Each structure stands twice: as C-alpha cells, then as structure tokens.
Amino acid sequence: MRLAKIDWALGAVLAVMAVGVSACGSSSNSSTSASLPTSIGAGEGQLNLVAWEGYTQPEWVKPFEKQTGCVVHAKYAGSSDEMVTLMRQGGGSQYDMVSASGDASLRLIRGGDVAEMNVALVPDWKNFIPQLQSPSHNTVDGKHYGISLQWGPNILMYNPKAISPAPTSWAAIYDPKYKGQISVPNNPIQIADAALYLSKTKPSLGISDPYELTEAQLSAAAELLKAQRPLIKKYWALASDEIELFKNNDASIGAAWPYQQSTLQADKVAVKSLIPSEGATGWADTWMLSAHAKHPNCAYKWVNWVSTAKVQAEQALSYGETPANTKACAVMETLSKGSCGVYHANAPSAYFDSIKFWKTPVKECGNGQNDCMDYTAWQQKWTEVTG
Amino acid sequence: MSAVLFRRPWLRAVLLLSAPGAWFVLIYLTALALLFISALWSVEPFTGKLVHHWTFENFEQLFKVPAYRTIALRTIGIAAAVTITDAVLALPFAFFAVRVASKRLQSVLFVAVLIPLWSSYLVRVYVWRLILSKDGVLNWALENLGLGSLNIGYSNWAIWIVFSYIWLPFMILPIWSAFERLPDSYIEASADLGARGSQTFRTVVFPLVLPGIAAGSIFTFALTLGDFITPTLVGGAGSDFIGNVVFQNVGVANNVPFAAAFAVVPLVVMGIYLLGARRLGAFEAL
Lengths: 387, 286
Known about the structure:
Chain A has 14 helices and 15 strands. With 387 residues, chain A is of the alpha/beta class. Chain A has 2 domains: 46-151 and 283-354, D-Maltodextrin-Binding Protein, domain 2, CATH 3.40.190.10; 155-279 and 360-386, D-Maltodextrin-Binding Protein, domain 2, CATH 3.40.190.10.
C-alpha cells in the first residue's frame, strides 16, 4: 500500500514534466489574407508585440499609449527562431505584431503566419530609403508583408582593459589567446559570421554568400566554430546575458548588437566596438502583422508611430541602429549632434549593400543550383557545435 | 447516509478515489500518452507545421547525432555527481542532528535545513551566479586570503555546486528520518557485543540508513535530471542539459516531436533508477 502511494507521488512529478512538454505544441493554420484595409479604424485598446529587447522602450511607447489608447504588451525574443515560434503558438492570435529580421520574415510569410499590409496607410513609408521600401525579405510578388523599421551591423565588441592591442579582424573571437573571455550569440545564424570570416580568410572554399553554403562549406564553418567552443565563456541567449557577462568581467570580447554597447556605456562600462575588416553580418527588421491579429487597428497605429522621423530617431539613438526613414537624420542631429553620421543614417547606399543581411538559408542557392544547406541543417550543425 | 457508506466499503472507496482517479487518468496518463505519440510525428521545416505521419526519425536522430549523446551523458553524469555529493554531505549532518545534538539545537538545525526552501528557486540560482562570477564574492574572498582566484563561473563546475546546494534538503530529510527510526538499543547491543564505533557504523547503522539515502537520491537525481534553469543561468559553453534541448525545441525551434522524443530519455533513465532504488528499500523509507 505504501509503495502504491509513493508511485503516485513520483507519477505526479513525471506528469508535470510530461504536461510541460506536450502542452506547448500547436500547429498553425494558414489563412488567405483578407482584403486590405483602406483606413485605420478606432483602436482596440491594446496591442501585443513580439520584439527584440530594446525595441519597445518607454521613451516612445508611453506617448504612443497616451495618444492612441492602445496599451502595449511586449514579449522579448532572443532569436529569430523564437520569434517564429511565438507567432505560431496558440493558433497565431496571441500576438498582433513581430519585429522580424530577414531570417525570420520569409518563414513567416511562407507559413501563412503574417498578413499583407497596406503601405498607403503609412505616410512615412515614402520617406524610407529605397532599399527598404520593398525589400525581398518582406515583399513577395509585390505584396508588402510588413513595414521596414531599422537596420544595422552585428559588431565586434570588446573591453579595452582586457583586450589589447585593439582587434581589427573577426580572428579575435577565434583566437586561443582570449580563451574563456569570448561570448557569442546562441543562435544558428551565427554560422553565417563564421562563413563570412572564412570567405575572406580561406578563399579556396569559394564562399560568396554566407547564407548560401554547400555541405562542404557548412562543415568548414562548423569546424571553425567547434574549435572556437573551448574558448567560449558563454553562448548568450538574451542581450541582457551578454551585458551581465561584460559587467562582471566574465567576458571581454564577443559578437554583439549595438544595443549591448550603448547599455554598457550608459552603465559606465568602457566597452568599444568596431566593424572588422572582413565586414559584418547584419539585420534589417520589419514590423509584421499577424494573420490572426486581434488588434489590427492598434497595429497600424503602431507602425505609423514607429515610422515617424521622431520615433525612428529616438529608437536609432537608443538602440544604436540605422533608421529606415531618411527624414530621421535631421531629428537625430537635434537630439545628439553628429549622431546621424555615427549611425550611418546619411551613408551612401554602398554602405547598406556592404552588409550581409540575415536571411533564411534555403536549398535553392542564388547560383541556380539546389545544393545549399537549408535552415534545419544549420540548426543541427549548431547543436553539434554547442551541445 | 453514513450507515449506507459504512456497510458498503467499496462505495466509500469509489467516492473517495473518483476525483484523484480522474485527475490521474486525465492529466497524468493522457499527457504521457500524448508525449509518446507526438514523439513519433515530425515537423515541416519551413512552415513549422506538424506532420501527423508515423516515423522513428526523431529517435534515430537521438542516436545518430553525437551531440545528443554527449548531452544525455552529461545530464546523467552531473545528476549522479550531485546525488553522491549530497549523500556525502547529508549523512554526517543528519547523524549529528539526530544522535548528537541537543533537542534545542536539533530544532534549530531542522529550521536551517528548511529555510532555503522558503525563498524562490530563481533567486537562489542568481545569487550563486553573483558568487561565482569573475568579480564575484568567491574570488574576492580568495584573493583577500592570498589564494589567487578561481575561474569556475559559467561552467559545469558551477552547475554541480549549485545543484548540490539546491537539492541538499531533499537528501537530508529522508536520511534524518532514517536515523530517527534507528533504535538506540541496536547501537548499545552492538557495543555490548564488542564492536568498535567504525564497525557498528559499517554493519549496523549504514545498512539501516541506506534506504533513507536511496530515497533521498531519488529526489536529487530526478530533480537534477529534469532541470534546465540552472544550466541556463550558471552553465557556460557546452553545459546544455536534456531539459535545455527540450526547451529549445519547443520554445525556439518549434520542433515539439523531437522535444518529446528527447524527453522520453529521462523517463527511461528514471524508470531504471527507480527499480534499483526499490531494491535498496527506498520506498519503505519515505
């Protein structure tokens, strides 16, 4: 009798574990997008967002809430994979919008998770730099699945007290000299950073696009990352993890976003950053509307708000990225003199074209062949590297 | 009414057990069945939709990819290390508390064991992160003592220390009650028959406390095996547990079938472990 009682208690523990695993799954249904709205109606009172950490700062969220009555609830995601999963959970109606990067946006479009948007309802769209009005990562067959937001490079950040001389190349994060001081994102797309480095240092591999890798090229990148693993202090999942690592001197060099740098500098941690000689990967983000959004009017009000020159400038300075709206440059100058140039808001389009923007790896490579490794293969390789 | 129930014990049993019984079947057995079934499905990579098509692909992956083997072995290895550490720490502590300490000191010790359980698990793990970090309390103390510094923050060492700390009460309490059930007369008889202290411990005390250790080890082993929060917070590169892979596949990669397949591994390990623990008498000791 006693035995039976104990088995029950253990059963309960295991059951909780089992529920935790099996209850979270769900499959989403694709639906044909309804006809586009021609005007923005009254707000629904709230707006649920999936965003990158730092994209919903009170500085511009509070005035938006006050002006529109749409209360913003934001959920931070640490990676593009997580964003895609969040937008698909619970039938896809849990969140209204997502600030998707180029490696998530096409997956969301093809999965039927996001809806077409009417750019005519966003007056500032006309002021965007031409490359971000209808970029291939959010516009398919002339249909706009979202409104571009900001863009920027993935930088090499370091603490000059621990790292000298100042690095000039991505080689620093693969250098055994800095063993135990390196931190990079826990994200399969990090493979592209290794591929970009290899494309310059090992031309014999023939890598031309870091997101279009054959099996041999992907393996070469994975080998580089496997050799890097013993040097890594921690693979960071959230930006705040990396900030804490640098604050406590647990890490001194790593791949980062400008957000970590500006947050650390605001906390009086003297970190520096650069775009190394090999160039950089980067992101171009889009606010996308869920195909099952419960608050579409608040969503349109939100994209209008974040597209205005003032909010674009505020976000650019707060996060350290480049606004899509060309009118933001002047506002940035009034907020912080010289910042327009620092964040390349007035840079020629050649600068934009020099960054290798995140995109979802697919089988069909740009050269017309079908021997590139798709994202599932990237995810598996990444598990092999970090596991 | 009460007379009816008194005359029909089976009816009484049915009424008493219907609610927990329904809970057991619905919540526990159904969830477990769903877990096994979804482990045999797969996911369409680009759209992330579930494919309801029977396949053993997920289990093949588990055996084929060396990284998953490493992760499973790491999880089981650290769970075993934590269990042994806690047993070694808890045995002398419980012995002292039950057989040496005064009644007053005994209740103080009992409260001291329980106090950490009153605070949030997360808070305790974060505190350890601060203690073990490079500029943390541990290195500050070591450097002031002139002992140099340790670099164990964000590593498997940190995971081992934190788990051993967090689950220690779950090991102490069963051993404590095992010591309480040990009659004084046995130890006196052993001494009367000429056994030395160490001999008494080996041949009388330890065999009688062993079921308590086995019972405690079920908790420390099972809790470590299923955890993913501590490895996330204090682990470094190469510190993923089975739970982390499950979490990443559900929350990040949206591959629930693979997560379900991997979640079967700790269930099997725990099943084997429980069979062994039962032979040591762990269930009688709880």
